[in-house]
Model the fold of this input.
Amino acid sequence: MVIIDFLDIRLDMIWNYKELFIRGIWVTLSLTAVGYVGGIILGLLFGLGKLSKRKWIYYPCKYYVDFFRGTPLLVQILIIHLAVIPTIFGHSLGYFISGAIALMLNCAAYNAEIIRAGIQSIERGQMEAARSLGMPHKTAMRYIILPQAFRRMVPPLGNELIALLKDSSLVTVIAANDLLYAGKVVAGAYARFWEPYITVAILYLLLTYIFTKIITYVEKRFSNSYIPTQRRRAFSFGRSPSAGG
Done:
């Protein structure tokens, strides 16, 4: 009976609600993009703050990271949507604003640790050499330390992007019209669960695959062993990459 039910796939269910799934993909990607870009910016600030020797900077950054890494994202979404935003603005600003803020704050906490670890992985002699040449600390951090650390941050930052894409499905608890919401609507309309949720899983898998390919390219592009095509051809012919002809 289970095998028969499994083989009795009704693709017409998905086709009838294709606009809802397309809208869900758009909402999912929008939430992921806003949350991740904001998380990178805030993560950089909090990551640098955790490296500060000033206690009034270090401890707020530390408590922020500890809170958002130590509590479930689902709880954070509910608190922000039902308590924080209505208290500040007097009313809800909609699922997208609440979801984007929650994803951004949560992502920033994890990115802060990635950025802090990436910066600390650079040898101290790099900063000392820059300072001995008269370069200010901020300038040395911007032009010497961060570019080197970024190469080492690419893989974990890419993993955080994949995790955020999947975690964005939790925003459906505040009635976000994302992919999971589309699956729930179809399942409720037909009282069938195989087709809608398998479709949601396949769509998430497809998005994750695309993001993984992009991250792999970026990781290869910023790796220390990366050689552009023209230079690689020059080396293959035994020429110096700077040689003419």
In short: Residues 48 and 116 are 7 Å apart (CA to CA). Residues 2-225 form a domain with the MetI-like fold fold (CATH 1.10.3720.10). The chain has one domain: 2-225. DSSP finds eleven helices and no strands in the chain.
